[in-house]
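Figure S4 source data
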Amino acid sequence: MKLLILNGPNLNLLGIREPNIYGKETYTDLCERIRAYADQKGIDVRLVQSNHEGALVDAIQAAYFDGLDGIVINPGAYTHTSIALLDAIKGVNLPTVEVHISDPDTREEFRKISYLRAACIATVKGRGTQGYLE
């Protein structure tokens, strides 16, 4: 199995940005944790992080053209704003799971809206970085 693990804006600041919400684990720690888990399960993972919407769309499309089996995406703030990411996920028709470290439903009102959820087979939220492994 081959998966794209896609992280959106500000995920590169894990451990620095609001550790009371997102924890103290760094983005590098998260990547190492995902790789170790994937190796243990025999899953080939491609990890991508970008603060740029177009780069995320490009990564989603590349997942299709490269024959990947699915996507795990933490779209960050683009969760609440990006029809482009929604359309990209719909366009490639790969099973996609939306993951959030915090639970957006318990935060500000605008965070309760996810444009991507309509194209995802599941959403994991509020489980910290463990949610990526689930």
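Figure S5 source data
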Amino acid sequence: MDKIIGLQSLNLLREMVTVPSVSFEETAVADLIGSRLSAWGVVHERLRNNLVAGLEKMDPDKKTLVLDAHIDTVPVCQGWTCNPFDPAGPDNNQHIIYGLGSNDDGGCVVAMIAAYRHFLSRELPFNLILALSCEEERSGENGARWLYGPEGPLHPEMVIIGEPTGLKAATSERGLLVIDAVAAGKSGHAARNEGINALYIALDDIAVIRSHKFSRISPTMGEVHKTVTIIHSGTAHNVVPDRCEFTIDIRPTEVYTCAEILDELQSICKSRLKARNLNNRSSATRSGSPLFKALDGLGIEKFSSPTTSDWMRIDSDCVKIGPGESSRSHKSDEFITVEEVQNGIETYINLIGELAKHF
């Protein structure tokens, strides 16, 4: 790793933390990153609030590898003991970079930029594209959904997705299915035991959902995970509720589509179930992918990820790997260490170099 590029990457991360960049409000951070890329001689395009480099050098006779990381963050949560937009943190520790987005996904963003810069003047047997996407945390229409969609500019054969994984490689990840359920009853006076209690209907359905087992088991991810997370009902203590709403968070595996899961749960529930989205599918890298060979060549540990990412928008061979730890994401006092970012840069460089051996 070039020391100057490494230092520039760390400084960019510190700058990024100071700029609020919640999903759908990434303009300022995209401006910042774009200005640094230009200063470093990285030719790129601003596509909506996505930054894409390398399109001008595309060779149609070569396959394409994309380095993909996202520039947006979740909103500030409760519990921060330091300023979420101050990378120095509470103790000004020079070995730690604090702040919202430092771990998810700023460390991956700057490490991928550094790796891309490393190969700018080097010949590779595949096209190398850098894609820094927006709206990942909210699955927006203008980020990966558009970039990798039919009308978007990216249709690669391979993608390395930058997410904090402790530099282990996720070769599969669960999808996401959120179901809103409505139990319908009939209101009445509680003192006279009137009506049909929608809350009881919902509770019965929740018990059925909790105990239900999906028959197909993924060889890599195991069972489909499901959790009821929200419930609302009632207007007054003496009125039998005629409506109860509850929400189910489901993490599918690759052996079920979201539609299949919805249909199966509806068949055992009296409540009406409606999916917010049926497109957040589970993903898995095909066993013969060159990405697998590169991971094996470097001895990188592989695992199945319980969290979603841009991967669910991409039909290419993918692996998800990056500096930082997923356990720090979406929490107060988020941070990443300088050493983790440096190791992330080295890992991306080595992974790209190893991948080149299999072409």
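The first helix runs from residue 3 to 17. The mean pLDDT is 95.
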